[in-house]
Amino acid sequence: SYIVPVAGSNDSVESIKNNFAIGAIMGDSDKKGVYYSFDYNMIHMTVLDSNCVKEDGTLTDEQLEWVKNDLENADAKWKFVAVHNPVYTNGAFSQTSTYSAYMKQIYGLMDEYNVDVVLTGSDGVYYRTDGMQKNEVTDTPKVAVPHKLNQSVFYKTIPDPAGTIYSSLGSSGADSAKDNEIYNVSNIFPANPKDPMFTAVEVLDDTLYLTTYTLKSNKATKIDSVSIKRGATLYGDVNFDGRVTASDARLILRAAAQLELLTKAQLQVADLNRDGKVTSSDARKTLRIAAGLE
């Protein structure tokens, strides 16, 4: 087993280094923060330090340059980021003066580098989004799919989601916090369970499972779950006939020229470059797929 430390509000570089054997992966011993990355099986994990920030709450220039280079060069199948301060939360951090600038910077980075999941803490309340891109929930249909290793357990599955899932993981110890009523999501899942909780991450090739439990009297109770399945979407098939043809390329080109209005579902499969835009490059790529050149 491995323990991956993420610097919290009361931690320092020295306290992390003195208590965890991460010197080798930390690299530069003169770093002003605890940020590092590693690959584990099919996951690339990037750990950021939300203590190592400017006055407005955004990452320091040094950390920002490092994370851009790290995510750009990550070639694992799945990209994860872990950071203490939450990006989306129904807790106290959302009311701080630095939250807005911090949130915009982090979700901008996640969008740019196609990060799959962001795990956060700090607030002591549980909150999980669906796929988020450009600060909006992506319109990806969800289906109930059985777990690969247990066919009796079904997960709400998001096929090839555009965007990133953000999860504020609640409290793993005795303390919990009150969620802000304006962001109360108890109708979706227990946003503020009184018991310690944890989230299990499971990767089985093309499918990622996130399952959250509360723990009481040595008994784990599932309160939330979601999965992501890769390769389930036929990109380029904007007319949804099950094929990628020149007709799809033409439709994408017209949309790029603003001569055609696509639905959200069509925009998702039209964005073959996964850059959040539909351009002539997407049309060209679709035409190459239709011609059997890609």
The SS-based structural class is: alpha/beta
Helix share, percent: 10-25%
Overall pLDDT, averaged? 82
- Widest beta sheet: strand line-up: 1-2-3-4-10-5
- Helices and strands, in order, run as HHEEHEHEEEEEEEEEEHHH
The radius of gyration over CA amounts to 20 Å
By DSSP (H or I, 4+ residues per run), the number of helices equals 7
Shape: globular
DSSP strand content:
25-35%
Uncertain ranges: 179-188
Largest sheet: 6 strands, mixed
| Count of individual beta strands | 13
Calculate the terminal CA-CA distance, rounded to whole Å: 41 Å
Give short descriptive properties of this protein.
alpha/beta, five-stranded mixed beta sheet, 7 helices
Short note summarizing the structure:
With 294 residues, the protein is of the alpha/beta class. The protein has helices at residues 13-19, 23-26, 61-73, 99-112, 246-256, 264-270, 280-290, and strands at residues 36-40, 43-47, 78-82, 117-120, 126-128, 132-133, 136-137, 143-147, 150-159, 165-169, 197-204, 207-216, 219-229. Helix 5 (246-256) runs antiparallel to helix 7 (280-290).
Give a verbal description of the structure.
The chain has 294 residues and is α/β, with parallel strands linked by helices. Helices cover 23% and strands 26% of the residues. It has 7 helices and 13 strands. It has a 6-stranded mixed beta sheet, covered by helices on one side. It has a 5-stranded mixed beta sheet with strand order 8-9-13-12-11, with no helix packed on it. Strand 3 (78-82), helix 4 (99-112) and strand 4 form a beta-alpha-beta unit. Helix 5 packs antiparallel against helix 7 (280-290). The longest helix has 14 residues, at 99-112. Residues 179-188 have low confidence and may be disordered.
